[in-house]
Structures are given as structure tokens and as C-alpha cells.
């Protein structure tokens, strides 16, 4: 049923991955330049004062739309899995697929953050922002959902056998 605890965790997976699309993942700021990674672009730009103050000149911009595709696909699969409550084996398979997609999203984000680190030389390191922690939270929620789906399946199997 939709009101089961794993449905709540799957909804949290979808929300986390959807929110990832709106937040920056990583940034590195130097006195006159900045590199910013979000789900759509890795941007190297000049900074006039601070990042929020004035529009900056973009020196280099690389499309990272595949992060947005992975995050969106993960959210859609989680939402689809909620309504597959009548087939727990399918839900477990979709949960495993979601774990792989979330892990891939994290790996791509970390790789691009490393690539962005190389774009702006200097001893200072970039900082991870909210966008990198949301897939981690989604991974935890997905693992909890899978655990409760397996518990439900074990409960149904124990009730089905003859005594």
C-alpha cells in the first residue's frame, strides 16, 4: 500500500534528487575568479567583488546535463517504485537500480569537482555545497526503503508457507 514506511523513504529519495537540480554542488573561489559546478554546468568565471554582487564574465562553461539526467531518472524511478507496491520483487529491483544511479551521480559529481579544482590553480581547495549531500541522503533513504521492502517480502513469505 502507498502508506507503508518504504513509500515515505522512496518519496524522500525523489525529493532529494529533485532538490539536487536546484542547488550548486561545488565551488572554488579565488580573488578574481571562481569555478562553480551545478547539475547543468561547470562554469569558470571572473568575479567582480563577490559571487552575488554583479554578473561575471564567463571564461569557460562546460555542460554537465548528464548529472541532471541521472538525478531526474532516479527521482522518476523512485516515484514509479512507490506505485509498484503490489510487486515487491520489482520494487527491490528498482531499488537496486536506483542505488546504482545514485552512486553514478555521486561519482560523476566528485570527478567534475576534481576537474574544476584543476581549472583554477592555487593552494586553496574548493568547497562542497548542499548539492553534493543530497544524493548521499537519497542513497541512505533508498537503502532504508529497500530494507523495509525486504522485510515486507519476508513477512508475506512466512505467512504463505504451510505449518
Describe this structure in words.
The longest helix is centred in the middle third of the chain and has 32 residues, at 88-119. The protein has 4 helices and 5 strands. The model has no long low-confidence stretch (mean pLDDT 90). The protein has helices spanning 5-20, 65-82, 88-119, 130-160; strands at residues 26-29, 33-37, 41-46, 58-63, 127-128. With 163 residues, the chain is an alpha+beta fold. The protein has one domain: Up-down Bundle (Butyryl-CoA Dehydrogenase, subunit A, domain 3), CATH 1.20.140. Strand 1 and strand 2 form a beta hairpin. The chain has a 5-stranded antiparallel β-sheet with strand order 4-3-2-1-5.
- Tell me the number of structural domains: 1
**Oligomeric state as shown:** single chain
**End-to-end CA span:** 27 Å
Q: From the coordinates shown, what is the CATH architecture?
A: Up-down Bundle
Can you count the helices? 4
Average pLDDT reading: 90
In short:
The chain is of the alpha+beta class and 163 residues long. Helix content is 60%, strand content 14%. The protein is built from four helices and five strands, in the order H-E-E-E-E-H-H-E-H.
Notable traits:
about 160 residues; single chain; about 15% strand; alpha+beta; 4 helices; Butyryl-CoA Dehydrogenase, subunit A, domain 3
Amino acid at each position: 500500500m502507498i502508506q507503508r514506511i518504504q513509500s515515505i523513504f522512496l518519496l524522500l529519495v525523489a525529493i532529494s534528487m529533485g532538490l539536487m537540480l536546484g542547488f550548486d554542488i561545488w565551488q572554488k573561489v579565488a580573488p578574481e575568479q571562481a569555478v562553480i559546478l551545478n547539475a547543468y554546468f561547470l562554469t569558470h568565471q571572473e568575479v567582480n567583488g563577490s559571487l552575488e554582487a554583479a554578473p561575471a564574465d564567463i571564461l569557460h562553461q562546460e555542460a554537465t546535463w548528464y548529472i541532471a539526467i541521472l538525478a531526474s531518472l532516479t527521482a522518476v524511478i523512485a516515484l514509479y517504485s512507490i506505485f509498484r507496491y503490489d510487486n515487491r520483487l520489482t520494487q527491490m529491483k528498482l531499488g537496486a537500480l536506483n542505488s546504482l544511479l545514485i552512486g553514478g551521480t555521486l561519482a560523476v559529481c566528485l570527478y567534475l569537482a576534481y576537474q574544476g579544482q584543476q581549472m583554477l590553480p592555487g593552494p586553496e581547495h574548493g568547497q562542497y555545497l548542499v548539492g553534493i549531500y543530497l544524493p548521499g541522503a537519497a542513497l541512505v533513504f533508498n537503502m532504508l526503503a529497500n530494507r523495509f521492502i525486504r522485510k515486507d517480502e519476508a513477512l508475506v513469505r512466512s505467512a504463505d508457507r504451510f505449518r
